[in-house]
Amino acid sequence: MEAATSIKPIIRVAALSGSLRETSFHTGLLRAAIDLTKESVPGMEIECIDISPLPLINTDLEINGTYPPVVEAFRQKILEADSILFASPEYNFSVSAPLKNALDWASRAPNVWADKPAAIISTGGSSGGGRAQYHLRQIGVFLDLHFINKPEFTLNAFQPPQKFDEEGNLVDEAAKEKLKQVLVSLQAFTFRLQGK
Question: Which top-rank group of organisms is this from (predicted)?
């Protein structure tokens, strides 16, 4: 009986990479996050949700209050998640088109983002994707997403030491530790918002 009370509930995290590139560093960050939950963040399960099959947002595709099956399946994954982890690249000082498209589809009535705790991780050039994070936070205000404030995770992918291997896997141990702190913070924030 004592062991059962010490088990933490499982936090289900829907993870979205805003980059569709096969060897995407952002998808690599999500793979690293999954590995970290298995190694050192118990009680958290991360599922990467592929946003590449989503059609471009088009309300003509909404028929009798329903969405195309691929959109319905995506929305259900977001609805079932306890929290969201965005791996957001920076395109022209903003979020990528695929990520914005996913945000828009899941915001259609009823908004399945509402009241979800969330975190953002980014990598890229000199700012490491920081400007896209600020824009995503602005979008999140309207969507009723609740982002953790700290720690922030931005990573200059091109500054030594090497951050990613040729397959896009995160290899930098300091970055992995920083990513782990984001996951721990997201987990604690999720419990707090759930009243646990």
Answer: Eukaryota
33-74 residue pLDDT tens: 999 999 999 999 999 999 999 999 999 999 998 999 999 999
The DSSP result for 27-43, as a single string, is HHHHHHHHHHHHHH-TT
Place of tokens 């949700």: 49
Of 86, 80, 78, which Cα lies nearest the Cα of 147?
Answer: 86
Radius of gyration of the chain from its Cα atoms, rounded to whole angstroms = 17
pTM of the model: 0.94
Task: Supply the DSSP string of 90-120, one letter for each residue.
Answer: -BTTB--HHHHHHHHHHHSSS-TTTT-EEEE
Which amino acid makes up residue 50?
A: D
- Return d(Cα 173, Cα 170) in angstroms, integer: 8
Report whether the peptide linkage leading into residue 110 is cis, meaning its omega lies within 30 degrees of zero: yes
122, 129 Cβ separation under 8 angstroms: yes
Query: Whole-angstrom Cα distance, residue 43 to residue 11?
Result: 6
Contact 83, 116 (CB under 8 A): yes
Q: Which residues, at least 6 apart from 66, have a Cβ–Cβ distance to it below 8 Å? A: 72
